[in-house]
Amino acid sequence: MLKLVNISKKLGEFTLQNISLQISAGDYFILLGPSGAGKSVLLEIIAGLEKCDSGEIVLAEEDISNHSIQDRSVGLVFQDLALFPHMTVKQNIAFAIKQNGLPHVEISKRVVELAERFAISHLLNRFPKTLSGGEQQRVALARTLAKKPRVLLLDEPLASLDVELKAEARKILRELNRSGQTIVHVTHDYEEAISLGNRIAVMHNGKIEQTGTPESVFSKPASSFVASLGGIRNFFQANLLPTNHGDIMLAKVNSEVAFHVLSQKIGYGYIMFPENSITISENPISSSAHNSFLGKVVDLFPQRFGIDVVIDVGVPVHATLTSDSVESLKIEQGKKIWISFKASSVTYIPCS
């Protein structure tokens, strides 16, 4: 439905480089990446606010690369919502369709329909500054959808909302997508991406790092950058070599460190293992775990679900422990401890 072909754009020191994407009708497509990745620039190029230096934008099999903003059949909701402060809610929603020269009766009917859909009928005579953040967002969505765009573009739509309002907004956006609306949503928030999107493109430094379903992208990240966005810290490039132990392979990370991996494949690729798969002890553990290392604690970080303990075993390995475990083991910076984990907990991703 929406196809981007080799889109490039230079803005000062920043360059958007050969972006190609295909977004199907009905997709909830997420552009995920940190600030400065080029997500909002790409959104503005799709909307027609910025002109690309090269490449094509095809919507419903029509090249719209040189179309005006008004002729693109896309609607953009800005991060700051950009509601007209001097207009009422009703006037804001009606503004876009008034430009089309529709009869007054048709405009009023459309405003009423959208107000009911977004539960803002009681706000029609209010001004934006008197509304809450969640109410303003619903007005912005109603105004943008008034023209019935084929594609709805959202630039960090949840960034300024508190936790409760975010949950409400996510529900609204899911329902909107389920009704058939194609959405392209820019965010830097991993949890937002996986809770809403059915397709994700991870952007970094003006390039697409990886595209796919949330499950495929974050279960098989193609780079350490993608892994870090998904909260995977134990992610290493490695060369997988055979051993004399059947399906247990040796993943050489560097000249000093190699991990045992349960795999039937060999060659260069990436390995990763979850922080909660690691057992920590003061002495070597007698167990079936093929991976056992003596390391030094180099840092500890409180996090949402426990404490992230970083152990240097020749590479930094992250383990998640409870506060009680950290206290009982007297774990502190500089302490020597043993870590162990099973070969089956290590995932190998071959280089494509």
3D architecture notes:
This protein is of the alpha+beta class. The protein is built from nine helices and 20 strands. The chain has helices spanning 39-47, 89-98, 104-117, 133-145, 163-178, 190-196, 214-219, 224-229, 323-328; strands at residues 2-11, 14-23, 28-32, 54-59, 62-63, 74-77, 151-155, 182-187, 199-204, 207-212, 235-245, 248-252, 258-262, 267-272, 279-281, 291-303, 306-312, 316-321, 336-341, 347-350. The strands form four sheets. Strands 6-7-8-3-9-10 form a six-stranded mixed beta sheet, with helices on both faces. A five-stranded antiparallel beta sheet has the order 13-12-11-14-20. α2 (89-98) packs across α3 (104-117) and α4 (133-145) runs parallel beside α5. It is elongated, with a radius of gyration of 25 Å.
Rg, rounded, reads: 25 Å
User: What fold name stands as the CATH topology of the largest domain?
Assistant: Rossmann fold
How do the SSEs run, as a string of H and E?
A: EEEHEEEHHHEHEHEEHHEEEEEEEEHEE
- The residue-averaged pLDDT reads 92
Please give the domain count. 2
CATH superfamily label of the largest domain: P-loop containing nucleotide triphosphate hydrolases
Helix run count: 9
Q: Major beta sheet, specifics? A: 6 strands, mixed
Count of DSSP E strands?
20
In CATH's first tier, which class of the largest domain applies?
Alpha Beta
Strand content: 35-45%
Distance between the termini: 27 Å
The neighbouring-strand order within the major sheet is 6-7-8-3-9-10
Protein structure class: alpha+beta
Low-pLDDT sequence parts: none
Helix share, percent = 10-25%
Shape: elongated
